[in-house]
Design brief:
Mean pLDDT of chain A: 90
Strand content of chain B: under 5%
Largest sheet of chain B: 3 strands, mixed
Largest interface: A-B, 40 and 35 residues
Strand order of the largest sheet of chain A: 1-4-5-6-10-9-8-7
CATH class of chain A: Alpha Beta
Mean pLDDT of chain B: 83
Number of strands of chain A: 11
Oligomer: heterodimer
Number of domains of chain A: 1
Helix content of chain A: 10-25%
């Protein structure tokens, strides 16, 4: 209780944000997925993550590996603020991969970012027949051009995604291979 | 003879060109800061750099500004929101969400004329002095300066912040409307088009309210502006008093310049997920150009993505209409395939996907769609 109170009070100042190392080895993500890592990442612990988990190596604005876990019918990928319920992009269990891309695009384009789909193709993910898409994103705030990829699968009418995104210059090439290895290692927790 | 105001209506006397204010003055400091921001804007990845479009918009601004033409710089910024703003140093931004919503050149002239009106009446200076007199000067300039001093990045975000600092009061907006209408009339544009800009926007907002059921939803634009109903009505009344002999709307030139950009702007419009607004916008665009297959395609896409009760049927109707047009886009077959897939009509979906692949073999999602055709099970979640 005392810890919670301290955390609450501290959250008023710092929002209780911290990073903890994950890996190497098997790491469980939101109690649903298991990722086998050959090197460590930093896991973001803070508010506003919803059903996601964020990892980074050099800092969240420079590289981010993100898991969207167990997104069910009518749920959002990320909470969209200030919009009416009918204006919020939501997952439907009948969505096809293109529609998942549109869902992701709508979320990533919030705030004026510019999203462009480069490629969408079938790909195995988490032991199932899923998909992978590659994209380019220009971030509105600082106009940095980012590259990203996303693996996804719908299992038991619930959506699971793993995305990696980093500035096109330097950081994408620096970490994309590790992120790709992490994606290919993912399996559902037994 | 150009349109003139009827007797009793005073016309706006355009002042001579402004001298650049001395750096030692409050206004001079502001200009200097804005010049730095403008240099960042020139490098922005969000600027639309198409020469033809920029020349066209700048040409209209020049036609309206007359002697002040050399002091006007118009930047077309890729943002899917209805907005335009003018900084006191002559730097004007027009957002693509605004251009998408206009019907003709005269409507753009109304918007540009309004912004030029702010410049000619030096409203920003009033705003600056007013803030200063209320001891809010520090806050006013502080916001702007801190934004400007935030480093080399984020020019658009900073500019939006600065533009916010120049939000004018309603009287300034009314005066800018009046000046803008005088300028457009003197330049030979149909003044009645000014009121239509707001009428159109109002229709879209109402459609969004009807769709979401929200009691009232006002754009941030209206925070300081007169309400669009009032504005549309005032502009229409004023336009009716003008004795006109040259009614130019410039619709042909407008369509030719805007059409190459419309697809990309509509794609960005869809991402806003304001389905009521988008459908009202498309309805208007279709009424204006009923033979444009792209517009029916986007209507289909809006219904497909919205996916509310009855939307799949409306999407299929729209795709069918798009298919009959000379410029029917290949993407309609992908949309049709997805809707039919969602409805469980496998064979028809396969046909649509095959057609899409034939027409767009290099599409970004071709490999995914091909997997549906070779293995229909893949398209099932």
């Amino acid at each position: 209780m005392k810890t919670l109170l301290i955390c609450f009070l501290a959250s008023l100042l710092s929002a209780c944000v911290s990073m903890t190392a994950v890996g190497p080895g098997d790491v469980t993500v939101r109690d649903k997925l298991v990722v086998k890592l050959d090197s460590a990442w930093n896991k973001y612990n803070g508010p506003g993550v919803g059903k996601t988990e964020l990892w980074t190596t050099d800092g969240l604005s420079l590289d981010v590996l993100r898991f969207f876990v167990d997104i069910g019918e009518g749920e959002q990928l990320i909470e969209v603020r200030g919009a009416h319920e009918k204006q919020v992009p939501k997952f439907r269990a009948t969505m096809q991969p293109q529609e998942v891309v549109e869902l992701y695009d709508a979320v990533m384009s919030q705030g004026g970012n510019r999203f462009h789909l480069d490629k969408l193709a079938p790909a195995d993910f988490a032991g199932g027949a899923g998909f992978r898409f590659d994209y380019t994103l220009v971030r509105k705030g600082d106009e940095v051009e980012l590259k990203g990829f996303c693996y996804g699968v719908v299992r038991d009418k619930r959506l699971y995604l793993m995305t990696f995104q980093a500035p096109k210059i330097h950081y994408y090439a620096q970490h994309a291979q590790r992120a790709q290895a992490a994606a290919l290692s993912i399996r559902f927790k037994g | 003879m150009l349109p003139q105001l009827a007797q009793g209506e005073s016309s706006w006397l355009v002042p001579p060109r402004f001298e650049r204010p001395l750096l030692s003055t409050d206004e001079g400091g502001l200009w200097s800061m804005l010049d730095r921001e403008e240099n960042k804007l020139k490098r922005s990845k969000f600027l639309v750099r198409d020469r033809e479009l920029n020349d066209y918009v700048a040409g209209i601004a020049c036609r309206l500004a007359g002697d002040h033409c050399p002091d006007m710089r118009v930047y077309v910024v890729r943002t899917p929101v209805f907005n335009a703003n003018m900084a006191p140093n002559g730097m004007m931004q027009v957002w693509t969400g605004l251009l998408l919503r206009l019907t003709n050149e005269a409507q753009l002239a109304a918007v540009l004329g309004h912004e030029i009106g702010h410049y000619l009446a030096r409203h920003s200076l009033d705003r600056l002095r007013d803030a200063k007199s209320r001891s809010a000067f520090g806050q006013f300039l502080g916001i702007a300066l801190s934004a400007a001093g935030a480093g080399g990045a984020g020019s658009l975000a900073q500019l939006a912040l600065i533009a916010g600092s120049f939000s004018y009061g309603r009287e300034h907006e009314r005066e800018a409307d009046r000046i803008g209408m005088d300028l457009m009339a003197k330049a030979g544009y149909e003044p009645m088009e000014a009121s239509k800009v707001w009428e159109q926007l109002l229709t879209e907002l109402k459609a969004e309210r009807d769709w979401t059921g929200m009691p009232d939803q006002r754009s941030v634009l209206f925070a300081t502006h007169p309400l669009p109903e009032e504005r549309s009505s005032e502009l229409a009344t004023r336009a009716a008093k003008m004795v006109d002999s040259a009614h130019e709307t410039g619709v042909v030139a407008w369509r030719a310049v805007i059409k190459p950009h419309q697809w990309a702007w509509l794609e960005e419009e869809l991402k806003r997920r304001r389905f009521g607004e988008t459908l009202a916008l498309l309805q208007r665009l279709i009424e204006n150009t009923p033979d444009d297959g792209d517009l029916f395609f986007f209507r289909g896409e809006t219904h497909r993505i919205r996916a509310a009760d009855g939307d799949f049927e409306l999407a299929l109707d729209a795709y069918r209409s798009a298919e009959t047009k000379r410029n029917a886009p290949a993407d309609l077959y992908r949309g049709r395939g997805m809707v039919l897939q969602g409805k469980g009509e496998e064979a028809a979906a396969q046909d649509a996907f095959r057609r899409y692949l034939t027409l767009r073999p290099q599409a970004a999602d071709a490999a995914m769609v091909a997997s549906y055709v070779t293995n229909p099970e893949k398209s099932k979640p």
